[in-house]
Structures are given as structure tokens and as C-alpha cells.
Amino acid sequence: MYVCKTLQRHGWSHIGSFRGKQLLMDMRITTQCQNGMSFFSLDRPFQSLLYVHDAVAQRDFEPALPSVPDDVLEEDEDSVKIVSLVKTKEPLGATIKRDESTGAIVVARIMKGGPADKSGLIHEGDELKEVNGISLECKKPKEIIPLLACSQNEVKFKIIPALSKDEMSNKKKLFVRALFDYDPVEDPTIPCQDAALAFKRGNILQIVSMNDDTWWQALHIGDSSSNRARLIPSQQLQERRVVLQRPRALFKPPAVRAPAGSRRSFRLGKKSRWARERARSWRWSTGVHGLVCPSTYTEVIPHHKDSKERPRLVVLVGPGGVGVNELKRRLLISDPERYGVTVPYTSRPKRKQENEGVEYHFVSVHTFEDLLTPYANVSLMYKTSSILRNIKTIIPDTIYFCSVSPQSIKHVYTCEFKPYVVFVKPPRIEELRLTRRRAKFICDDVGTNPEEDFEDMMDMAETMESHYGHLFDKVIVNGDIATALRELKADLKKLEEADVQWFPAEWFCSSPTTAQRSCSHLSGWI
Ligand SMILES: Nc1ncnc2c1ncn2[C@@H]1O[C@H](COP(=O)(O)OP(=O)(O)OP(=O)(O)O)[C@@H](O)[C@H]1O
User: Fold this and answer.
1) What is the Cα–Cα distance from 369 to 280, expressed in whole angstroms?
2) For residue 315, which of 123, 213, 284, 419 is within the disulfide window of CB 3.0 to 4.6 Å?
3) Whose CA is nearest to atom 16 of ligand 1?
4) Contacts for 400 with CB less than 8 Å, ≥ 6 apart
5) Where is the PDZ domain (predicted)?
């Protein structure tokens, strides 16, 4: 029974089109009058025809599109596509995978001749956002297959189409981690202060234009208050500035000191003359006095954390005596369930409060030297890797710390360990003197003068920062130990809770040349 309300008002001629009317006249029609409303029963084909007509007239054939999510940027709005495929017994003919760097589910392969291929609507590289209205965010490929299996007649996909190669090169978003603080208020050269972006070391910026050699345009990721690009100093400009501001580092001659072995102090005085000289020569050969590129920005890519992913390895670095072990010790005491350590090797003598295999494996200078020969270095690296691997498989939820010398960071600075590198930095020299003396850790060396060691520590910290600063995710100033510990714990908590983490692009570079370029502070992609 087809109810035709229009019939009542205007009679036959108003049902659909004239063609409809003509058809109607040709059919067998039964009409009845009931309460002033006209009813008529029609044969099935004709009834279907009217349904189709009405559907077309009301444009009912178009799919009901879900609303555009709020977080889609204006420029992205047109890139969401809804694809509806009729389901048959055949599989769709596509494979999907999770993109490691973005966490997105993407079409990995389209099988030739399969339904997906024949439809021409789904392509390799397309990002799947939803299946039948169910969001695929944080889902794994194996969780998505049952969603497809249980859908009835049709499967509806919400897709972000893959970009063509040309579009890719134009549209690839470029993110960097800032390696310095920038305050436009203190920059007299900025063309327009209101158009500038202030940022802190460690902030993530999206570079939206590099057309100008001196001023780039960038957005501050995580600052939802503004979507407007602002000016930041380009890498080139910042490098020039750093070099001009570094006369002390560049021209300071090596300090002439009394023979190192002639004095004893809380920390370095216990080192052999050889070790002290070696440390100093390393500083001069690799530090600010060598060919060091100033830290400006380093390219990063977002990584969407998987709920089952292990915590990242936390690597602590800092100049000798700054308090790396003290921080590790206190962290372990504060929560032994949550934190674990790896035990490094050292050639320095054991201190009173230290135990073999706890803070370090104490080995002789000779053994340590052996470990540093090129051949042994491989086995040391292997040992380090296997120790870390074992630990990672034994207690997956524990956050592991390891302290390494900055030169050794490269052994763990890989996608396998995904280290989070924390640089433990001494405070200003006055605070260093005050806090260390107050803590009385020079008590076992009566009559020592730690002043030179404090200076060495400051020098070494400066060298490490200028040489390896681009690898540091976090800098903790160890003045007051309780404050430093609190800050470190808060930072690790934030790291654990963050859904998106920013990994250096070099971890994902396949060719060593590209990796090297990306490591040298973006010089490759300018
Ligand atoms: N913030 C601080 N205030 C006072 N004393 C501190 C502080 N941090 C560390 N110390 C003390 O300084 C001494 C050296 O610290 P620690 O052994 O942790 O240094 P380290 O960085 O591990 O050196 P190394 O790498 O040579 O072992 C210890 O006696 C420690 O208790």
C-alpha cells in the first residue's frame, strides 16, 4: 500500500512527474476513500519505481557522511573520503599495516583483480580512519579484521587518500625539536616582534615555510591557542649567531694546570693522571674547539605510542661527579618496582660507599683499555646490547636507566632502544660549591681543594652540551638534589603518559648518508 498525500490535495497529476502519471494510468489501480485520504494499491514493479523516483528526487542515494572531526585543519578538510563497498563472499583483496611513525592504519597492498582493486576507490598508502563508523585510532591490524568480517551487506570506510609523490614532497610536514631558547623580545633583529614565535629548548615546532633564508615560519605543536604561523630564526641565522657569540669557546687556549696527580679532591683527584689528561685531551679534540656545529633544530617525527610498548630506555649522561649515579640511586630507592638500572664498566677506583656490580663493574685501567681497542669495542657494544635486550625482555614495564659517556651514546642511539637521553648538568659554579660542600662528600679527602674539579666539571658540561646537545631530550640541572630528582621523576611520568612521542628522524633513515645529514642539525634538507 502506497500512501500518497499529494493525491489528496492535487489529484493524480501531482504524483511525481508526468511520465509517472502516464505510467500510473497504464497500471491497474484500486483507489479507496477513507477519512478523506486517498489510498491506492499498486503492483510491485510500479511501487518500486515510485520509491526510486522519490529517492532520486530527495537525493537519498547519497551516503550519509559522518561529520568532519573537529581536529581536522582547514587545509585537510577536503582530503577525507568515504568509500562504501558492497560485501560479497570474496575477501576485499587488500592488506593493511600500522605505520610505525604515525600509528596510522594504512593500506599496504591492493591485490590485482580483487574487489578493492576493481572498485578503483581504495589505493595503496591510503590511511583508514574508520570502518563502518568505528574509529581505528589505536587499533592494531588484527583488531580490524573482525570489524570487516562482522559487517553485513556493505563496508563503509573513512579514508584519507594517499598523496601522490609530487604532493608528498610538497605536503610532507616537517617537525623539528628546538635546541635553544628563543625570546623575540630580546632579539633586536626580528622584522616584526608580534609576528615572532617564542619557544624553549625541547619544544616541537612544525616548519611551514623555509622560503626565507633568515626567517622561517613555524607553528608551535602543543600550543592550541594559535594556528597562525610565526617567524623563527632559520638554522643558518642561528648558527651564525652562535658562532659569533662563542669567542671564549673558540679562542680560549687550553688551561695550563698544575700536574693533575699532585692534587686530590672529591672526585677527579681520585682519577689517575693518565685518565685526567685523557679526559682533557678528549675535550679539546672533540669539543667546542673542534668542528662542532651549533645546535639549532633537529628533525623529529611523531610516534604514536602503542599501549603495549615497553618504556623507553633512559640514558643519563653528564660530566664526571655531577651526580648521575646519585640520581639513579635515589630513583631506585624511591620506586624499586618501577625503575631498574644497567651496570656500566669503569676504570676509576671504587669509592667507599660503592659496591662492585651495583654502581659499576670496577675494572683495571688495563682491562678498560682492552675494552676500548677496536676489536674489543665490538664485543663491548655487543655486551651492552645483549644486556639491554635481556633486561627489556625480562621486566617489560620497568623503566631502565643506563649511564654512558657521551661518546658511547651512539651505541644505544638507535631505533631499537629508542633512548630518552637526559643530560645531567651542573648548576652555576656558586651553587655547585654550596650544594657539594653542604653535602660533605669531600669528607674522605681531608685538606683537598675541589675548586679545580668544579671548574673541570663546568668545562666538561659546556663541551658535552655543544657537542652532543642535539641528542639530549631533557636537561636536568643538578643543584639541589631533591629538586633535580623531583624534576626527573615528573619528566619521566610525562614521557610515560604522552600518546605522541617525538623521535629523531635519523632513527628511521635507511641510508647512512641521510642519517648523517639529518644528524648534522638539518643541513641536509635546507
Ligand atoms: N645535587 C647534589 N648535591 C650534593 N651532592 C651531590 C649532588 N649530586 C651528587 N652529589 C654527590 O656528588 C658525589 C658524586 O656523585 P655521583 O657519584 O653520583 O657522580 P657521577 O656523575 O655518577 O660521577 P661518575 O660518573 O664519575 O661516577 C657523590 O658523593 C654524591 O653524593
Assistant:
1) 17
2) 419
3) 323
4) 311, 313, 314, 339, 340, 341, 342, 388, 391, 392
5) 82-163
Could you give the angle at the alpha carbon of 153 between the alpha carbons of 152 and 155, nearest 5°? 80
Indicate the pairing of strand 154-160 with strand 345-346.
unpaired
Report CA torsion sign: 291, 295, 296, 300.
Answer: positive
Identity of the amino acid at 18: F
**Domains defined for the chain, CATH in brackets:** 2-57 (no CATH), 74-168 (2.30.42.10), 173-240 (2.30.30.40), 246-525 (3.40.50.300)
What is the distance between the terminal CA atoms of the chain, rounded to a whole angstrom? 72
425 in contact with ligand 1, CB cutoff 6 A:
no
Q: Exposure string (b/e) for 408-441, b if CB count within 10 Å is 16 or more? A: bbebbbeeebbbbbbbbbbbeeeebeebbeeeeb
Three cell numbers written together for 457: 666539571
Question: How many C-beta neighbours within 10 Å does residue 206 have?
Answer: 14
CA of 56 to the centre of ligand 1 (A): 79
- How many whole angstroms from 439 Cα to the centroid of ligand 1? 10
Grid coordinates given for 131: 570502518
Interface pTM, i.e. ipTM: 0.97
Annotate 83-129 with DSSP letters as a single string: EEEE--SS---EEEEE-TTT--EEEEEE-TTSHHHHHT---TTPEEE
pLDDT, tens digit, 9 for 90 and up, residues 263-317: 233 333 344 454 555 555 444 444 333 445 567 899 998 888 777 777 888 889 9
- What radius of gyration do the chain's Cα atoms show? 34
